[in-house]
Write a structure and sequence with these properties.
Protein name: Homocysteine S-methyltransferase family protein
Strand order of the largest sheet: 1-10-7-6-5-4-3-2
Cofactor: Zn(2+)
Radius of gyration: 17 Å
Number of domains: 1
Strand content: 15-25%
Bound molecules: zinc ion
Keywords: Metal-binding, Methyltransferase, Transferase, Zinc
Helix content: 40-55%
Pfam families: S-methyl_trans (PF02574)
CATH architecture: Alpha-Beta Barrel
């Protein structure tokens, strides 16, 4: 039984939210400061970002915890605060979601360490890192688990094992970034990811981040071909590619571009649709409008 289907009901596609890191940067988060620190030091800004996405029509809010595993927080001297950072991330999203009657996805990003044989991290160690983060997210109150931007199926397996260990009743969504000639950095193809991760117990499998809507639609078509059993498919594309404008980056896909993208994804049978880097509440509102015309 697909746990996510039971949670979401029958309407498709379900709309997720858009980017968080890029949105916080627009709110004044400085270069080099991890966005997750704002769960502790500027929770009002995180709350405002969630509220903007909920108001735009997102049905699932993603916790601000992408870089919340211990090795990633260690880079900023915050390795001892995994519990605080992630519990707060979930509590902030939970409070906004409850006001709007929407769901919370607890976000796990890559550990930032390479697994053996390319690196030194073992699968068991990766599982323990994800389990530590997920335990804190659970304590803050989440409805589903979202593991995203992975490149390595071994790391995805470790995250799935952590979810089975810590949150066996919650649906798990796993997305990979196919940003290298329609494969992940490690060479994984979209169809192979769907087959492997569905067999590993993911309730939804898909793609996020990447090189913009056009490539995402090619990836979505490959995933749709490979769909097995009752696994759901998800995409969360970046809003195009970043372009240097003055002293900062701007992503080149407009809200209208993302809205037509959402329509094409729906036609391909993608069940869950959202945005990644550079997508804003305006993009999500346009996607909402086109997915549910009045
Ligand atoms: Zn991204």
């Amino acid at each position: 039984m697909n746990r996510l289907k039971a949670l979401l009901g029958a309407d498709r596609p379900v709309l997720f939210d858009g980017g968080m890191g890029t949105l916080l940067q627009d709110s004044g988060l400085e270069d080099g400061v991890p966005g997750e620190l704002w769960n502790l030091e500027n929770p009002e800004a995180v709350r405002a970002a969630h509220a903007a996405y909920a108001t735009a029509g997102a049905q699932v809010l993603t916790t601000n915890s992408f870089g919340g595993t211990r090795p990633r927080l260690d880079l900023h001297g915050l390795g001892g605060r995994v519990g605080d950072v992630n519990r707060e991330a979930a509590q902030i999203a939970r409070s906004v979601a409850d006001e709007h009657g929407v769901l919370v996805a607890g976000d796990l990003g890559p550990t930032g360490e390479l697994l053996a044989p390319l690196g030194t991290l073992t699968g068991e160690e990766a599982q323990a890192l994800f389990a530590e983060q997920l335990t804190a997210l659970l304590a803050g109150g989440i409805d589903l688990v979202l593991v995203e931007t992975l490149s390595d199926l071994g790391e995805a397996d470790a995250a799935l094992a952590a979810a089975r260990e810590v949150a066996p009743d919650l649906p798990v969504v796993v997305t990979m970034s196919f940003d290298t000639n329609l494969r992940t950095m490690m060479g994984v193809r979209p169809g192979d990811a769907v087959v492997h991760l569905a067999a590993g117990g993911a309730d939804a499998v898909g793609a996020n981040c990447g090189r913009g809507p056009a490539e995402m639609e090619l990836i979505a078509a490959e995933m749709a071909q490979a769909r097995t059993g009752d696994v759901l498919l998800i995409t969360q594309s970046n809003a195009g590619l970043p372009q240097v404008v003055g002293d900062h980056f701007e992503y080149d896909a407009t809200a209208d571009d993302m809205a037509s993208h959402a329509t094409r994804l729906a036609e391909l049978g993608i069940d869950l649709v959202g945005g990644c880097c550079g997508s804003t509440p305006a993009h999500v509102a346009a996607m909402r409008a086109t997915l549910n015309p009045a």
